[in-house]
Amino acid sequence: MRNLKPYSGDGFSFYESALAAKDSDGLRLRLGAIAGQLKTSYKNYADRFDKNNLEALVADGIFTAHKADLLSLYSYQFSVIKALRLEIQREQPQAIRYTCQHCTLTSNESLDHFVPKDEFPEFAMNPLNLLPCCIKCNQHKSHVWRKSGNRKALNLYLDVLPAEQYLFVDVTFDQYGDMDFEFYLEKPKSVTADLFALIEFHFDSLNLFTRMREKAIPVISELQNSINSRLGNLSYPEIAQEIKDAAAANKLAFGQNYWKSIVEIELLDSSPFLRLMGL
Ligand SMILES: [Zn+2]
Predict the structure, then answer these.
(1) Contact status, residue 173 vs residue 179, Cβ threshold 8 Å
(2) How far is the centre of ligand 1, averaged over its atoms, from the C-alpha of 206 (Å)?
(3) Model pTM?
(4) Which helix (H) or strand (E) holds 138?
(5) What residue spans define the domains of the chain?
(6) Residue 183 phi/psi, 5° resolution?
(7) CA of 101 to the centre of ligand 1 (A)
(8) Which residues crowd ion ligand 1, with CB under 5 Å?
(9) How many CA atoms are closer than 13 Å to the CA of 243, on its beta-carbon side?
(10) Any bridge partners for residue 147, and if so which?
(11) How far is the CA of 74 from the centre of ligand 1 (A)?
(12) Whole-angstrom Cα distance, residue 155 to residue 31?
């Protein structure tokens, strides 16, 4: 997981361009009547975004009354939304541009509304409220994003991810005696309890331990084949060191807690894997 760079354009101008692109005079007329309030709400969102206190947002009844119209603007198939997703993707480093950073497991072909659009329909089209995300993460995402005035959901635009390792894995065995993995989180001393709670909620609500485990299983064969193809020219410790160096470099590109690097480093020294390699 890596932090994402937010949309750098003006959010309300984006909203206005989306409304202008809709082929409905009635919709433009009805939403035109609340343009002033909408503009203020976008400014309010941007202010809270800058202070990282989105949890203090207060819903306004006027937008609830226009909910159907406001929600009708957002559609994944809408060309304006597709163009926005591409624009946000282009803001990110190339290595992570097309991968969902919520899970780092699959491609980010959808957009997640950080503040749910059902609760705040006025932000359905706010680019600062939209994060590139995969369909699975979007489906798993909890509707609970704040509780008792505190934020529960991690925001990859705002919450600076730790540089320290917090994701770990144990090599275990499944019921058939095959190698398996158990992922877990551990709070580094330098990470605040509040940030760690956001990370824990993130892993839990997106079911990341299970989803990472499923992606980690094939890494065993991948690593085994990669080592076998090099044995003969190099010794196992030499190859293992090379793979560890590459895994460390991948952490720089894909995040310090990149699941695959963590799995590779853990496997190389584990007794089950050494036995599999006949060592
Ligand atoms: Zn995802």
Answers:
(1) yes
(2) 8
(3) 0.95
(4) helix 135-140
(5) 11-146, 167-276
(6) -85, 150
(7) 6
(8) 100, 102-103, 134, 137
(9) 28
(10) 150
(11) 20
(12) 29
